[in-house]
Structures are given as structure tokens and as C-alpha cells.
Design brief:
The protein is mainly alpha-helical. Helices cover 51% and strands 0% of the residues. It has one domain. The protein has two helices and no strands.
């Protein structure tokens, strides 16, 4: 999916935690996911960079 989006000339954010399975249960990964989500929404909804 990521490769297809990027091949189409679009940005694709992808977060992979090597020490997790599906989802983000470990606090360090959940925190990182939360803050990167905020960054994503600020950039794509508010137009901030």
C-alpha cells in the first residue's frame, strides 16, 4: 500500500514498531504513535509544517 501511494506521487506516512505485533501496546510505541498522529493531522488538516 505504501509503495503504491508513493508511486502515485503522494506522501505516505508509515510507522512500524519492530518490537510489536499488530497495534501499539507498549507505552513507548503508543506514545510515539500518538505524537506522530498529531503531527500528521496538523500537517494535513491545518496545513502546518
Amino acid at each position: 500500500m505504501i509503495a503504491a501511494v508513493r508511486a502515485n506521487g503522494q506522501d505516505a506516512w508509515h510507522f512500524l514498531a519492530a518490537n510489536e505485533g499488530h497495534g501499539f501496546r507498549k507505552k513507548e510505541n503508543a506514545d510515539y504513535y500518538f505524537y506522530t498522529s498529531l503531527m500528521f493531522w496538523r500537517e494535513h488538516l491545518l496545513g502546518e509544517e
